[in-house]
């Protein structure tokens, strides 16, 4: 059996992380499990939000200036997304901050005492869904600083800054698909949140249809979804700056049995989710850093995975070579290359073009062969994979992105620039 590359091992680890019975000792929780069980109560830690958002400010300090930020899956104050943007409202020079909760949210109102959460005619779930809207943050308590405590004080003094969200004929109050929430979405410039794992495709489709900028958390395996990959291929969506392939720690509800540790400050359980990452269409510096690569001959001579090979493996069913890790991408090869999905963390759209993916039907024009039962009993699986023929046997790969170098036309001698 061929030795797994580093990226393949990471992919296998991610699949193991999504097993039906995650280990209590490891504290790993799979997003796919959450999706199947409709368990969407993963709450992002403040430090992860801060680290990701501030990476965009390093690239462009004006990223959020004058913008309306919408956190549409976030109970005000319980959500660290709301806390971060409220606390940094003036630093980011926001125009407006909107956050919404949903009817019956298991955490809604725990950190506030808004009377709206307890009022009602008994026909709606409690706590009720609310939208909190800030168009300024100033020193409310006179201590000389404007911070999250001032936001709390302002909201308690100004009932007009929060409004109830009504259900419609299809969705409960506060659901991102409801009429009230869509009306708020139309006001927004940038949506930043951790959306429901079970509704990720529908959620991101809505944002794209409304032409919104986004910075959201999702399942790493969503990269291969048809709807998501199409956006990535067309350079309309890409990975964020932090946490890719290392997992993230989330706060989970008290009834969760599988967790990593307890947050000593909040008393809440913390679980690690290995298969999670940021998705965005906000530009950042990492995606413009060129990969420094060796030539094909140098890789064949020095790479530990290729050393001793006369050439790179070629696929039997794609007009492309197999490249097991981004480090082995040859700098001098102009043809199509199959690389692990984890390459996206290194993808520079100025340096490479994404043509397709082996796990999905695509219009790349690179596929050259379809297998039948006469070729192999598992021909269905073969048709989904990149296939390398070894004698009379087939060796298949995990999903592979099909990429090639972008070659910029250089002016010839004597021409004017």
| End-to-end separation | 53 Å
What letter string, H or E per element, gives the SSE order? HHEHEHHEEHEHEHEHEEEEEHEEEHEEE
Biggest sheet character: 8 strands, mixed
What is the helical fraction, as a range of percent?
10-25%
Shape: elongated
> What's the total helix number?
11
Task: Give the tags.
single chain, 417 residues, alpha+beta, 2 domains, eight-stranded mixed beta sheet, four-stranded antiparallel beta sheet, 11 helices, disordered N terminus, disordered C terminus
What does it look like?
It is a single chain. The chain is of the alpha+beta class and 417 residues long. The chain has 2 domains: 19-286, no CATH class; 289-405, no CATH class. Helix content is 22%, strand content 18%. It has 11 helices and 18 strands. The strands form 4 sheets. The chain has an 8-stranded mixed beta sheet, with helices on both faces. The protein has a 4-stranded antiparallel beta sheet with strand order 1-9-11-10. A 4-stranded mixed beta sheet has the order 13-14-18-15. The radius of gyration is 24 Å and the shape is elongated. The model is unreliable at 1-40, 106-114 and 409-417 (pLDDT under 50).
